[in-house]
Design brief:
Layout: E1 20-24, H1 25-42, E2 45-46, H2 50-53, H3 56-64, E3 70-72, H4 75-83, E4 88-94, H5 98-107, E5 112-117, H6 120-133, E6 137-142, H7 155-167, E7 171-177, H8 189-212, E8 219-222, H9 228-234, E9 239-240, E10 270-278, E11 284-287, E12 302-304, E13 309-314, E14 319-323, E15 335-339, H10 343-347, E16 352-357, E17 364-370
Parallel strand pairs: 1-16, 2-9, 3-4, 4-5, 5-6, 6-7, 7-8, 8-9
Antiparallel strand pairs: 1-10, 10-11, 10-15, 11-14, 12-15, 13-14, 16-17
Helix pairs in contact: 4-5, 5-6, 7-8
């Protein structure tokens, strides 16, 4: 059962019921505009990743600014995006199983649908589903560019798989998927750049091998919020797939720039609104937002706007704050804004976004949006 919205349009931000997922709309829109401007300036396609926001509303705002479409990881997410008016979706993942492939192919009646492969049996499954549905699917060969997760390991394997796609009726070989997920969170600027340079070597080898047999890549896709400038500078990638940039979590903010400082290219725009529910001991306050309100896989959330206050522990429904010597005492009912450590799984914990205009402390609720693809892991 979906919970009731935690706020109504027109109410002050400080009245939002907690815990709640809150977007600072001013910062959020500036983030969207920065990435859109980067795409225009470089001439590179931007295909934001919807696994971050799980919202056709956010997707349409990105597309209005020039994004070519959306990525997602699951068929269920793709179904929600297409139902919400997104007409170009790449499932940047492998899909296995007759039922899921049939659902994917059915979407191609209403939108341009892409998907990734790293095994011949996946290609055969896509071809059967597309033929049965009477549609065309666009298929990218995923190559392992260093993450040791999905992707074919060699250029020769990429060629064999691309040829199998090209030979299949109802499938179009669209190019390469070359995403280095683990490189996104390498803190050092030089080390992160080198990881993408190594990935570029693998991309170039695959492209050259494909060209030798007469196959070209319309798309070389990948990159994320932590690395997109490096892929662009490399000159091989022509489609970027950043997700977290629109909200910016505490973990990404720890990546360092060329001067060794934490990056500030994008602003924190997503927060978990929480309330002090207990303050029984000196130097301690307890919030109503634990790890069921903010994912902790990439670290505990950070506290916004309260210097010397630190989120130091999370249980199911409790978040423990340490109040440093310079911190003002927090009392029952006080509002605390948290920056999630990892936005993607945090979003998946909530039914609603509350969009606030004019700042968290003094702003007004302008929008309430459903997290429409919440829980769509299918």
């Amino acid at each position: 059962m979906t919970q009731p919205p935690p706020a109504r349009v027109g109410e002050p931000a400080v009245s939002i019921d907690t815990p709640a997922l809150v977007i600072d709309l001013d910062a959020f829109e500036r983030n969207l505009d920065r990435m859109a401007a980067f795409g225009r300036e470089t001439g590179i396609r931007i295909r934001p990743h919807a696994k971050t926001h799980k919202s056709p509303i956010v997707a349409r705002l990105q597309i209005e600014r020039g994004a070519v479409g959306q990525c997602c990881q699951k068929v269920g997410e793709a179904e929600v995006l297409v139902a919400g008016g997104v007409t170009d979706v790449l499932v940047s993942n492998q899909i296995v199983g007759t039922a899921k492939c049939a659902r994917l192919a059915a979407l191609a009646r209403r939108a341009r649908i892409g998907v990734c492969a790293d095994h011949p049996d996946q290609v055969d499954g896509y071809a059967h589903a597309a033929r049965t549905a009477g549609v065309v699917l666009h298929v990218l060969v995923e190559i392992d560019v260093g993450a040791a997760r999905c992707g074919v390991p060699t250029a020769e394997a990429a060629v064999a798989l691309a040829q199998r796609i090209e030979a299949a009726e109802h499938l179009i070989f669209d190019g390469l998927q070359a995403y280095h997920g683990s490189a996104q969170h390498i803190r050092g600027h030089g080390e992160r750049r080198q990881a993408i340079a190594n990935a570029g070597d693998r991309v170039r080898a695959a492209m050259e091998s494909l060209s030798a047999v007469g196959l070209s890549c319309r798309t070389v896709g990948g990159a994320g919020t932590g690395s997109f400038r490096f892929e662009t500078a490399h000159g091989l990638w022509n489609e970027l797939q950043p997700g977290s940039y629109c909200f910016m979590d505490a973990d990404y903010a720890q990546n360092l720039d060329t001067e060794g400082a934490e990056r500030g290219e994008f602003e924190h725009a997503l927060f978990v609104a929480s309330t002090v529910m207990s303050a029984a001991a000196p130097g301690l306050a307890v919030l109503d937002a634990g790890h069921k309100a903010s994912a902790i896989d990439s670290g505990l959330p950070s506290v916004w706007l309260l210097p010397d206050v630190h989120y130091v522990g999370a249980s199911d429904e409790h978040g423990k704050l340490s109040l440093g010597a310079g911190a003002a005492r927090l009392g029952l009912g006080d509002r605390v804004w948290l920056i999630p450590g990892h936005v993607d799984p945090t979003v998946n914990l909530h039914d609603w976004y509350v969009g606030v205009r004019g700042g968290l402390e003094t702003g007004v609720v302008e929008a309430v949006w459903p997290v429409a693809a919440r829980g769509r892991m299918d």
